[in-house]
């Protein structure tokens, strides 16, 4: 019996029965009963998607495809962590990418690179770059120490976060903790240094910065030392009144 050939950009991969015909698409029930053999073997699903069964009983999803006349393979992970339905969705996405003229394998590698960059591009890493910039510019030791101390407070709160995950509320929560201790000038200077890190990130074209226009609200709320309702806090008014009284001529 002669069976039709499966061709195109996604060649069919399947174990053959005694008739030589490819078997029907996979099901979860079929996958679960696949037994290991002395050597790895492949069982096809559809449109180039197949599962490789290894001697160690691993069942790994792959997609065979062709681009520019070359045969390539794309990995989707292991079953059952990646289920049949998910594997088919990933296969369909790869087919769509290929139809657009792009190599799905190359696209996947580029996404991995971007993901690694995002994970490694934390606020702490960018704060260090900002501090190192100050060293190269020849800032005084006392100034450098002050900057490190200020940014150390921010790093303690959100240093491990990727910069793309840092929002105005993230920063404001950190500044409010400093402000709550009555250290309003410190909060203002910390805000300025965080802003400096933000400017550095944008100047070098690094991936993303999550503050956006909301950063203005953070600047104003700390600069003016106002409560959530927009009124000057009692502590600030009290401190300012005390300073004015102490400087009054009658106190001299």
From TrEMBL:
Start and end residues of each stretch annotated as Disordered: 226-252
Keyword DNA-binding: yes
GO annotation terms (biological process): DNA integration
Transmembrane segments: none
Alphabetical keyword list: DNA integration, DNA-binding
Gene Ontology molecular function, alphabetical: DNA binding
Bias type Basic and acidic residues, positions: 226-237
Record bears the keyword Nucleotide-binding: no
Sequence ranges of Basic residues compositional bias: 238-252
InterPro entries linked to this entry: Integrase_DNA_bind_dom (IPR025166), Phage_int_M (IPR053876), Phage_Integrase (IPR050808)
Record-annotated Phage integrase central domain positions: 123-197
Sequence ranges assigned to domain Integrase DNA-binding in this UniProt record: 26-111
Family: Belongs to the 'phage' integrase family.
Protein name according to UniProt: Integrase arm-type DNA-binding domain-containing protein
UniProt source species: Gymnodinialimonas ceratoperidinii
């Amino acid at each position: 019996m002669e069976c039709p050939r499966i061709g195109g950009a996604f060649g069919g991969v399947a174990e053959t029965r005694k008739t030589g015909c490819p078997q029907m698409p996979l099901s979860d029930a079929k996958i679960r009963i696949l037994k290991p053999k002395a050597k790895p073997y492949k069982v096809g699903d559809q449109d180039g998607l197949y599962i490789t069964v290894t001697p160690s009983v691993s069942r790994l999803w792959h997609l065979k495809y062709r681009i520019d006349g070359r045969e390539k393979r794309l990995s989707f992970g292991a079953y059952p962590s990646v289920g049949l339905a998910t594997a088919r969705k990933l296969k369909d996405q790869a087919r769509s990418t290929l139809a657009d003229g792009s190599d799905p394998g190359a696209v996947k590698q580029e996404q991995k690179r971007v993901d690694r960059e995002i994970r490694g591009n934390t606020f702490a890493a960018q704060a260090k770059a900002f501090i190192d910039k100050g060293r190269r510019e020849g800032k005084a030791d006392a100034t450098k120490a002050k900057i490190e101390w200020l940014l150390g407070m921010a790093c303690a709160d959100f240093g491990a976060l990727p910069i793309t995950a840092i929002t105005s509320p993230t920063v404001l929560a950190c500044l409010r903790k400093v402000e709550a201790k009555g250290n309003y000038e410190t909060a203002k200077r910390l805000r300025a240094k965080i802003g400096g890190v933000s400017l550095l990130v944008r100047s070098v074209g690094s991936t993303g910065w999550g503050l956006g226009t909301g950063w203005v609200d953070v600047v104003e709320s700390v600069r003016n030392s106002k409560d959530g309702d927009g009124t000057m806090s009692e502590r600030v008014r009290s401190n300012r009144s005390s300073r004015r009284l102490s400087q009054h001529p009658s106190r001299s």
